[in-house]
Amino acid sequence: MSSEEKIPYDDEFDLSFKIYYEMMARRVSEILLVSSPYDAFIMEEDGRLAERIIHEYRGLNLTRPPRLTWVPSTREAFTALKKRHFDLILTMPRMDDLDPRSFGERVKRDHPDLPVILLTHGTGPPVSEAASAPPPTLSRDGAIRPADKGPIDTTYVWLGNTDLLLAIIKSQEDRMNVARDTEKARVRVIILVEDAPFYRSSLLPLLYKEVVFQTNQVMEESLNEEHKILRMRARPKILTAETYEEAWALYNRYKPYLLSVFSDVRFPMSGREDRRAGFNLLSAIRGEHPDIPLLMLSAEEENRQLAQSAQAIFINKNSLTLHMEIRDFLRDYLGFGDFIFRTPDGTEVARAANLREMEKILPSIPEESVYYHAIRNHFSSWLMARSEIQMASRLRPVKASDFEGPEQIKAFLLDRLRERRKGRQKGVIADFRAEAFDPETDFLKIGKGSLGGKARGLAFMTHLFKQTPDLLEKFPDVNISVPKTVVISTVGFEDVMALNNLKEPISCACTDARIQNIFMEAAMPEWLLADLIAYLSHVRSPIAVRSSSLLEDAQFQARAGIYSTYMLPNNHPDPQARLAQLINAVRLVWASTFSEKSRSFSQSTQQRTEEDRMAVILQQVTGRRYGDLFYPAISGVAQSYNFYPISHMKPEEGIVHLAFGLGKTVVDGGAALRFSPPYPQLLPQFATIDDMLNNSQRRFYALRLADYPEDLKCPGDNALSQFSIDNPKAIRAAPLRHIASTFDPQDNRVRDAYAPGGHPLITFAGILKYKSIPLPEIIDAIMEMGERGMGCPVEIEFAMNLPDAAAAGTTARTRGRSSPFSRSAPWPSASGTWRYTSPRRISPV
Q1: pTM of the model
Q2: Looking at residue 240, what is its pLDDT?
Q3: Measured distance CA(669)–CA(671) in Å, rounded
Q4: How far apart are the first and last CA of the chain?
Q5: Which pLDDT does position 823 carry in this prediction?
Q6: Contact 86, 32 (CB under 8 A)
Q7: 73-88 in b/e burial notation, b at 16+ Cβ within 10 A?
């Protein structure tokens, strides 16, 4: 957000997470080191140089370390150049056949774009230093280089620190990628101006380490390790310059993306050394960018006054706390630290360490503080430091003058923060972190183990929804999603087995009761207990504790119905009681791995039970509270292949089974409504009034929120109860009134709406006949998406909530009047829960 537009902005610019995959496309993969055997020996004295580079890469979460090839002479170097492509040459000064300059000249004749870097032991002027400085030119890769750098591109002082080698590699990669990455992803650029090889060799490694360290520190909200590594590619690029002209050319080329300039004071300008070149450079930049952070580095303390004149921060290069001072500058001025809200007079109002805290405290921030930061690009700069490219790029071109006042700016920022929080984790399996758990995240994984078969299906479904945004756009008034899910990976099961030395469930054919007792007495790993405590501290809705073994929901051996599921109301006033219920439910799901049914199935399929591993799904139950009961308005199972089509139905058009309440009615083969999505009004089971009375659903399942049993060793549905449709609690609930018809025994007729005093019949007429909700179309679209994703027929379990307000107007009118439903009636909002199961599980219900 700025007072004027500074960066070209394209509404169609791709700022999705995949942009991270496309960044840093060019890498230094092959390095040729030319040195005497003695220099090579000195480099390898503390361990092989290549191994040290790999170690440095891993320590900084960087990938693809380069391969280093050493040759002892320039003659062997030219032989190697003929056999293989190299991205970078490092040469030492002592060689027996050619001096470094002559070697560089010969290399440039055949390989003009191959960088040649000199590592010298001295601190004198670089061997390639020219007497004049012609205007810089733009290379083919978009990087800016002086017109005459000589045969040696850059000189560094080698003092045995491998950090310097890492910095040289990263500096070269930044040069190779800066043009494309700034244009494609708008990453930020830091310019370092330093002509002395000694100081350059000291500052560049320090700057890279600090930038990477600070970027790591602010990326606590990365969803998983893959995202963290990829987002590291969006760290600021560091470009080096040795003359005023080279620095000014870099500034002009990349000033829309400039984050900061670190400049020496005394360096060449107009072909000769100028003791005020750095002051002139920073003053010129300050004139064009009054708010950009500038840093003046000098070994001469008297230059501190020059820094003040250029409105720059001054650091003495000989300071004993140089590293800490540069770290402080990055944190305090470049957005790597907390966002500190200040009033225009500099008074601190509040601070936010991350985006979650920013969203939380922003409504209470004074308007003058929000406006103060907005017109200075502070919000977008802070976001860019966190590699939040998408959000920062959407904020930066927005002008503060576009809003009527600071209150609108604040509302705009809050909307963007909420949009980012919800959008960043869609379709992604995020790592669970107790200290930063966000209950709004769709899919989280505890531990580094496997998700198991059932959880993989859920994760795949969330991925498909992200990859098919047009599906959600097609039904804008219906919220279609996978319920919030946390998966305890198989590493939890493995740790419990190892911690308690549980051999008995594997080695003998114990009864189910014995196996349950063994697991109920087993100690839990402390790391898992801490994560479950953090989970329950944020989640208070009912939870389904479900199995997800490695062998479950396999395509040809689904193991459906073999393992246990436990429904928890999660509403006990004592947090310790809630935790105990959850832990016991998890233990009993683990115990079902070795149940009699599981062992029998394994024997019939020639599988070994001990090879199975159990992950556990903690899934928020879709539904609403109605008195002491909790259940969804609609649940069901959809199959994309219909084995028993009738009339003009076709097998590939699929079949759906609908029920009121929890889906156990359908799964257990109870009375449910059966229809094909293309023909929602073709209901053979309701051909006559007698058929409707005989075949309609008469009982439904609900989760009891009161009188929950303390003993979880009974069957997994111990908290579920069946209730009659005529139950007063059910009749008073709005969902039943929305989906039920009414049988009038006096007239012996069924009316397509609920009427008090009559007998309710579950017909879903308001949805299937009068299209108050496009449920058939939604199911058909999701099954089509599922078939494309799986490459075969699929089965989907789903549940749906209906808003009370939508159901309020569905009560039937007086006898003889028309139905309140119509094709033009607005669709009420609804939320869905969808899950893939194995294609082999498609069978008649």
Answers
A1: 0.67
A2: 94
A3: 7
A4: 57
A5: 28
A6: yes
A7: bbeebbebbeeeebbb
